[in-house]
Amino acid sequence: MSAGIEALNVYCGLAQIPVRSLFEGRGLDLDRMGNLMMRNRSVGLPFEDPVTNAVNAAVPIVDRLDPAERDRVEILITSTESGLDYSKSVASYVHEYLGLPRSCRVVEVKQACYAATAAVQMAVAYVASGVSPGAKALVIATDVALVDERAQYAEPATGAGAAAVLVGEDPRVLDVDLGAFGNHSYETLDSARPSPSFDIADSDRSLFAYLDCLTNCFEDYRSRVEGADFATTFDYLAMHTPFAGMVKAAHRKLMREFTGTAPAEAEEDFTRRVLPSLAYPSAVGNLCSGSVYLALCSLIDHLGDAGGPQPDDRARVGLYSYGSGCSSEFFSGLVDRRSAEELAAMRIPDHLAGRCALTFEEYAGLLPANLRCLVPDQDRRIDVEAYEGILDRARIDRDLLVNTGTKDYHRTYEWLSYE
């Protein structure tokens, strides 16, 4: 039985800041900007939170389902580092505003930037098992950024938004190679969110954990998939992207370890097999557990751009997902012209181009409210109209869900209507 991703979309907010503007505003060393390989990063607005990001990513997918198909969404899983409550899941709000059936299982999962892949694999296994023929599962990775000047060089790399992944029996976007995966996990504190208002990170520890897990994940993949070869099995690669420069270093490491390729050949291989996956991450920043799926979107929308297989060719993609703490997975699947056509309907390039470009002063002015996004205030009112100046500069072509505050700890939302 085939199982995999039937539909895929990302929502990366209404605003962005050029990375150079952020470097200059913070007085960071511009010589280090090239290491990030980033152009822009998405910036959440005070009325955007994990719920609005998730719903706004998933609405274009759900709206394309007919009533019978919507009724077959039997599982909704949100993965997030940005939980709103120690008990109630983000998924409960998302379920309500997407209008999914009451018979749907609703749950939230957490393992830093890996959790969405764990949820996708569980959803694929559920669909492939055949216990409920025709069933679908919706996995949504959704997060906000809690960074300011304390994050130093991590601040320009940290994005915000959500990736929505619909799993089913007709894998029009990614036909997952069932049983082809490799895992590696152990306990380490390379990054964490110990409170709802700030993150901590050990950049060196995180770098080494990411690279160590990648090597060991692929070793485990090879032990399960006879004849798997890093250089020849995969036409393309899409990886968790804390920043694009990290992915380039990871690719270079695996080429050295598993192929012995000369540096010039490794550079050509990176351009052909990996670079197409970095166009969107370089314009958004780290999307946490949605990061690898943002990279997959980028790859599919840029199939063949750098000399790789064209959309008419069926191509195998190797995917790597890493989450601090840590857990990781390398898996694979097939893409083709249907993948490109399905994703084109989401108009992701238009969405990214339509974000309002912030000045550093505007960005800095938003941070105090953004850093309180997850704080459980009993009562709070968010005046969406106060941000009309930014909204007027963003290109918005559909209704969007916005957070209007809390009432007795209960989050309140409204649809922002654009005719």
UniProtKB/TrEMBL annotation:
Domain Hydroxymethylglutaryl-coenzyme A synthase C-terminal: 266-365
Entry-linked Pfam families: HMG_CoA_synt_C, HMG_CoA_synt_N
InterPro entries according to UniProt: HMG_CoA_synt_C_dom (IPR013746), HMG_CoA_synth_N (IPR013528), Thiolase-like (IPR016039)
Keywords: Transferase
One function term, GO molecular function aspect: hydroxymethylglutaryl-CoA synthase activity
Domain Hydroxymethylglutaryl-coenzyme A synthase N-terminal: 70-170
Family to which the UniProt record says this protein belongs: Belongs to the thiolase-like superfamily. HMG-CoA synthase family.
Identification of the protein by name: 3-hydroxy-3-methylglutaryl-ACP synthase
Organism, scientific name: Sphaerisporangium album
